[in-house]
Specification:
alpha+beta; 50s Ribosomal Protein L5, Chain: A; six-stranded antiparallel sheet; two-stranded parallel sheet; 172 residues
């Protein structure tokens, strides 16, 4: 296969949506910093929601973006917490998203009673070389369809690099 047609890992984003500011948000931030080893960033609400008492611009979550070898390490550990099994619905072209129900399932992290129990989302973004031309400011160009990462290609990459098995569908 052509080297320019092989999908690659762009970034991994870890996210915890708390839904409120305050102490729980700070505990979530501390947890993500322990898992990733880098500084976490607060995410802000885009709109107000009176039923949940959320105002626009209020911090409601925490996220961390990882690239390179740190990203691969976190993916391996997150998949290990899920027994290297993902359902096919997690794969959507150039993104692969799945959740870890409780952070104590994550290898290398022990339960901290001060933090409490949190789960988090893992979102993996893939790309093929040459995608930059569609994002650059000067003389951007649309990339052809063959340069987009398909669901099948992302599945093959995860099977080859991370030994992922597809979850069996429940028989009704």
């Amino acid at each position: 296969m052509n080297k320019m047609q092989q999908p690659r890992l762009e970034k991994v984003t870890l996210n915890i949506g708390v839904g409120e500011g305050g102490e729980r948000l700070q505990h979530a931030k501390l947890l993500l910093e322990r898992i990733s080893g880098t500084k976490a960033v607060l995410t802000l609400s885009h709109s107000r929601n009176p039923s949940f008492k959320i105002r626009k611009g209020e911090p409601i979550g925490v996220k961390v973006t990882l690239r390179g070898s740190a990203a691969k390490d976190v993916i391996k550990r997150a998949l290990d917490s899920r027994d290297d099994t993902l359902p096919e619905s997690c794969f959507q072209g150039d993104t692969v998203s799945f959740g870890v129900k409780e952070y104590i399932d994550f290898p290398g992290i022990k339960y901290d009673p001060k933090i409490g129990m949190f789960g988090f989302d893992v979102c993996v973004t893939l790309y093929k070389p040459g995608k930059r031309i569609s994002r650059r400011k000067i003389r951007f160009v649309k990339i052809p369809r063959r340069q987009h990462v398909s669901k099948v290609e992302s599945l093959e990459l995860f099977k080859k690099d991370f030994s992922v098995k597809l979850a069996e569908k429940a028989v009704e």
